[in-house]
């Protein structure tokens, strides 16, 4: 019993240290900049999680164009309760704080149920750019 408790506590400490390192790195080494979106490639899938007893069951569809996924969710009775999960690969240009030059980068964004509008080509997207490495960015 004590061994399991110690193991769970150790895993918790490792997770907390990892999160602290990540957020400290982000606070000291990154700055928020605006990037101009060059291209967006999005796919969607429908997902549903059903809970029963002590277990759960996940169902999902294949990746498909988002318009088709929205239409299926609206019209197909078997897919009415499913959540829409959009995955977008965004190519953007940004001015790096490291050297003041314009660089190109890619971000992989995942959103469930259209909680965020899809980035559009020509639009603006805020990202975190590294202060010392011009080619390194993170999503906000």
Number of helices: 2
Mean pLDDT across all residues, rounded?
89
Biggest sheet character:
6 strands, antiparallel
Kindly estimate the percentage of residues that lie in beta strands according to DSSP.
over 45%
In the predicted model, the low-confidence regions spanning at least 5 consecutive residues are: none
Distance between the termini: 41 Å
Report on this structure.
A hairpin with a 6-residue loop joins β5 and β6. The protein has two helices and six strands, in the order αββαββββ. The protein is α+β, with helices and mostly antiparallel strands and 140 residues long.
Key phrases:
alpha+beta, flat, single chain, 140 residues, 6-stranded antiparallel sheet
Summarize this entry quickly:
With 140 residues, the chain is of the alpha+beta class. The protein has two helices and six strands; from the N terminus they run αββαββββ.
Question: What is the fold's blueprint, element by element?
Answer:
Layout: H1 2-29, E1 30-52, E2 55-60, H2 66-75, E3 83-95, E4 102-112, E5 124-130, E6 137-139
Antiparallel strand pairs: 1-2, 1-3, 1-5, 3-4, 5-6
């Amino acid at each position: 019993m004590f061994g399991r408790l110690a193991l769970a506590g150790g895993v918790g400490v490792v997770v907390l240290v990892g999160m602290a390192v990540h957020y400290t790195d982000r606070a000291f080494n990154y700055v928020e900049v605006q990037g101009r979106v060059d291209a967006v490639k999005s796919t969607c899938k429908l997902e549903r999680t059903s809970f029963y007893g002590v277990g759960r069951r996940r169902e999902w569809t294949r990746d498909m164009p988002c318009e088709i996924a929205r239409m299926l969710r609206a019209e197909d009775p078997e897919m009415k309760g499913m959540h829409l999960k959009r995955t977008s690969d965004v190519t953007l240009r940004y001015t790096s704080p490291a050297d003041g030059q314009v660089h190109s980068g890619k971000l992989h964004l995942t959103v469930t149920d259209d909680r965020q509008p899809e980035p559009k080509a020509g639009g603006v997207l805020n990202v975190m750019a590294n202060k010392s490495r011009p080619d390194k960015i993170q999503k906000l």
